[in-house]
Amino acid sequence: MAVASSPSSLVDVDRVRQDVDEILAGHVADLRLELEHLGPAVTPLVEAVERMLSGGKRLRAAFCYWSWRAHGGTDLGTAPGAAGRVAASRATVLRVGAALELFQAAALFHDDVMDDSDTRRGKPSAHRHFAEVHQGAGWAGSARRFGESAAILLGDLSLIASERELALAVAGLPEAARLRVRGVFDRMRTEVTVGQYLDVLVQATPWGEDPVADEERARQVIRAKSARYSVEHPMALGATLAGADDGAVRRCRGIGLPLGEAFQLRDDLLGVFGDPGVTGKPAGDDLREGKRTVLVSRALREADLDARRLVLGRLGAPDLTTDGIDELRAVIVRTGADRQVEQLIAELADPALATLEGAALEEPGRSMLVELGRAAVDRQT
């Protein structure tokens, strides 16, 4: 696979990050004004939303924007799309990108509670932060429960914001175009929510006896929870906003799903081997959280009896030490599981990128989508 540009540099092209950030900043400002009459007690909620939105790669917004460009979207505004459909303006596409980022914020608030994650982008996760506030103030009741409740409500606030941004974005489109866009967005939100449940289910059910079946369940979670909303749906949204026909949208899905799965597999590798100074997560955090990933299922498949016992005994242990993480990493490397996952990433991404490179799409949209795809699967953060 060719060396990719960094995601950070790519999302800056054509001011995508800057313009989406301005929309998100406007949302935070509006939220602060809207809640002002409720008094200073709600200020920490607005600040927590602002912190979550201040990070992120903006890859989903970029996939949406450059898919719109690749399928004929222009800066000139509304234009006829395929089969008489209406193409959205750049402003509309960027607002849909902001809605994607707000939906991701909601998913992250909730995901951190379900995974009991300590950090998010190098800072305490929302439920940890609010638990610390509770404990420091000496308030009544459980600090942990208070923190989790606050984070759940923050996720709900972000979901409301995502719906608002989407509604504002598509308000000026004809009804048929508006319904097509909402159909893609609503399908994405439904799949991610069900994917979260599948993830919880996988974490709760017996695991380790059949690594092949374990891997298939892990990949099912990846597709539903992450892959589709990371790449497939943003690309499909961009094509839909450009007025592309159903065949073009299906092509986006065929390219986006394997790229999204490769994106999450890269995330799983970084969760075990990534540099904390780059990823913003503690070293080996996924092992401490006991995430049941393709990487771990491959290690179990290849491990001898003693190594299997070590993995099953220590994965997700609440008292897992740094030495314990190093031992688990050593098993993964010794079994070649990390190299197998790298190979799987290539098997998923390379054909998808080749299809994208050969597609009859507009420039520079097509080339930017190829570069974004490479960056998504080769990134170090």
From TrEMBL:
Q: Which domain of life is it from?
A: Bacteria
Keyword check for Flavoprotein: no
Kindly give the InterPro entries that the UniProt entry links to this protein: Isoprenoid_synthase_dom_sf (IPR008949), Polyprenyl_synt (IPR000092), Polyprenyl_synt_CS (IPR033749)
Molecular function as annotated in GO: metal ion binding; prenyltransferase activity
Q: Which cofactor does it need?
A: Mg(2+)
GO BP term, example: isoprenoid biosynthetic process
* Transferase listed as a keyword: yes
**Entries under SUPFAM superfamilies matching the protein:** Terpenoid synthases
Please provide the record's keywords in A-Z order: Magnesium, Metal-binding, Transferase
PANTHER family reported in the protein's UniProt record: GERANYLGERANYL PYROPHOSPHATE SYNTHASE, SHORT CHAIN ISOPRENYL DIPHOSPHATE SYNTHASE
Protein family: Belongs to the FPP/GGPP synthase family.
Q: Please report the name of this protein according to its UniProt entry.
A: Polyprenyl synthetase family protein
| Protein's organism | Actinotalea soli
